[in-house]
Amino acid sequence: MENRKAKKMNIWMAMLPLAVMIVVMIFTVVKLEQSPHMPLIIGTSVAALVAWKAGFSWKEIEEMMYKGIRLALPAVVIIILVGLTIGAWMGGGIVATMIYYGLQIITPAWFLVTITLICAVVSLAIGSSWSTMGTIGVAGMGIGLSMGIPAGMIAGAVISGAYFGDKMSPLSDTTNLAAGLTGTDLFDHIKHMFYTTIPGLAIALGVYAYLGNKFAQTKIDMADIAQTASVLQDSFLITPLLLLVPLAVIVLVALKVPAIPALIIGIVLGFLSQVFVQGGSIEGAIASLQSGFTISTGNVMVDELFNRGGLESMMDTVSMTIVAMTFGGVLEFSGMLQTIMNQLLKVVKSASSLIVSTIGACFLTNASCSEQYISIVVPSRMFSKAYRDMGLHSKNLSRSLEDGGTLTSVFIPWNTCGVFILGTLGVGVAQYAPYAILNLAVPLIGIVFAITGFSVVKLTKEEREELAQEEELKTKSSVASLS
User: Fold this and answer.
1) Disulfide engineering: 273 pairs with which of 100, 103, 277, 302, CB 3.0-4.6 Å?
2) 0.85 cut: is pTM over it?
3) Could you tell me if residue 280 is left (phi over 0), alpha (psi between -120 and 50 degrees) or otherwise beta?
4) How far is CA 263 from the centre of its chain?
5) How far apart (Å, rounded) are the C-alpha atoms in residues 278 and 59?
6) Is the C-alpha dihedral spanning 463, 468, 472, 474 positive or negative?
7) What is the DSSP string of 107-168?
8) Which sequence spans correspond to the domains of the chain?
9) What span, in angstroms and rounded, lies between the C-alpha atoms of 79 and 76?
């Protein structure tokens, strides 16, 4: 088995694992209402058999799985830290304080618009949608639920704001990744995304204003909000000083402190708040980090919101991430995904079809490989030459990678982003997908602009000559290294 020679994958072999996984996933998740773990494991098994049939040894297939898992390790670390942050901030009264003051100043009519803008500003400042959702987003869920707004709407607004900031921030890893892989200047890339992302945000805010107006007309009982605020006051020491904790984390990341140490500082501050501000025991504060914060107030909504967080709460998300990346690793490194992409390229005849195909390929990669980073990396490698050959500027590709990759990741239940949102906000894809307006609108706007040619930038004569010289230098360098 170890000496088998790998051969080229055909399209039917490449599509088989994906088709089996999707069919089993639909039956398991929709019909049986079970988690996506088993369908992904079955998909991985089929992918491994196909890879073996194509000539890869089992040792090589195992290495593909390990490579996929290694790609997910940074995400796993963030997931764990966010779980610890939620536990520490719940126990320290930080989330309770944000919710309490939020209830005083935010009205139901403007809540969805307000939480979208707050999440957009925070995510723009720190460059992380996950950190924004795991902190500001959790507090927003509490405020919105207290106002009687459905969880799916709240989560959709949080996601729209968080992903706007993530997409447009020069501190964002996906923004830098898309620009770097395509050889596009970072700020040229961000400016070019204005064409699709700003209209997307405007559409989202318009929809949220309309939905909020409907809630204002229904005259939500403000007594419920007052009762929630009273329960929070009785259960926690509410003080504006606790707002300094999330502010400190935002400032640290804005000062370009990496996300991991910034989150660790936030965890430590939350731990100290639980012990010294809330008067809890060290044992209780450690338990909040490990198994999550627990409280019994007699108010069902408050109890459901605050009994959460901790390391253990994220283990399902971690296991899903590992299983999903095992499947994605086999598809990516066996060449199955490349085969599917090559098939897509055969139908590309124009600039518009190339951009539409890029957005579609990013979504397909999100669904098959379960990771938004891969949805940027793989299509960037597959399509970059086609963009050059058609005389299109690389910023068209970098924008399409973000429109189709970064934003659509939230719509795949087994993608690391969909899993993270479920674990953090407690809302599944089926609930929030219709209300994640920015994430729905931007890819569609990108497709419309591709078809109409609006904001599609072509290379100048000088840029084409410069690229040709770079290609010539690369070829000479490659020949020299071989000799």
Assistant:
1) 277
2) no
3) beta
4) 17
5) 54
6) positive
7) -GGGHHHHHHHHHHHHHHHH--HHHHIIIIIHHHHHHHHHTT--HHHHHHHHHHHHHHHHHH
8) 11-73+316-474, 80-313
9) 5
- Quick: pLDDT tens for 390-418: 889 999 999 999 999 999 999 998 888 99
- pLDDT, tens digit, 9 for 90 and up, residues 265-322: 999 999 999 999 999 999 999 999 999 999 998 887 788 778 888 899 888 878 877 8
Residue 3 is encoded by which pair of tokens? 């000496």
Q: Which amino acid is at 34?
A: Q
What are the two backbone dihedrals, phi and then psi, of residue 392, each rounded to the nearest 5 degrees? -95, 140
Cα–Cα distances in Å, from 169 out to 51, 162, 344, 468?
39, 11, 31, 31
Determine which helix (DSSP H) or strand (DSSP E) holds 22, and give its type and residue range: helix 11-25
Give me 23's structure tokens.
């069919």
CA-wise closest residue to 438 among 155, 144, 241: 155
Per DSSP, helices labelled H in 277-335 are 282-291, 300-306, 315-333
Please state, in angstroms and rounded to a whole number, the distance separating the CA atoms of residues 133 and 156.
11
Nearest-angstrom CA–CA distance, 219 and 272: 40
Cα angle 367-186-398, degrees, rounded to a multiple of 5:
35
For the chain, give the longest Cα–Cα distance. 80
Identity of the residue numbered 357: S
Residue 285 DSSP one-character state:
H
Structure tokens at 281: 């025991």
Question: 3-class DSSP state for residue 392?
Answer: strand
State both tokens at 304: 């459901």
Question: CB–CB of 112/149 below 8 Å?
Answer: yes
Alpha carbons 12 and 339: distance in angstroms, whole number: 9
Q: Residue 370 contacts by C-beta under 8 Å, 6 or more apart in sequence?
A: 40, 321, 324, 325, 327, 328, 412, 414, 415, 416
- Give the integer Cα–Cα distance in Å for 304 and 359: 38
Query: Closest by alpha carbon to 230, among 241, 222, 242, 218?
Result: 222
By the 8 A CB rule, do 88 and 127 touch? no
Q: Could you tell me the two tokens for 243?
A: 């707002």
Which H helix or E strand runs over 80?
Answer: helix 58-91
Can you tell me which residue has the tokens 């051969």?
Answer: 7
Residue 458's φ and ψ, nearest 5 degrees, are: -95, 155
pLDDT tens, residue by residue, 351-399: 899 999 999 989 988 887 777 877 887 788 778 888 988 889 999 999 9
Q: How many CA atoms lie within 13 A of 112 on its CB side?
A: 31
Please state the φ and ψ torsions of residue 475, each to the nearest 5 degrees: -65, -45
| Residue written as token pair 């709407």 | 153
Residue 464, Cα to own-chain centre: how many angstroms? 35
Query: What is the C-alpha to C-alpha distance for residues 248 and 270, in angstroms, rounded to an integer?
Result: 11
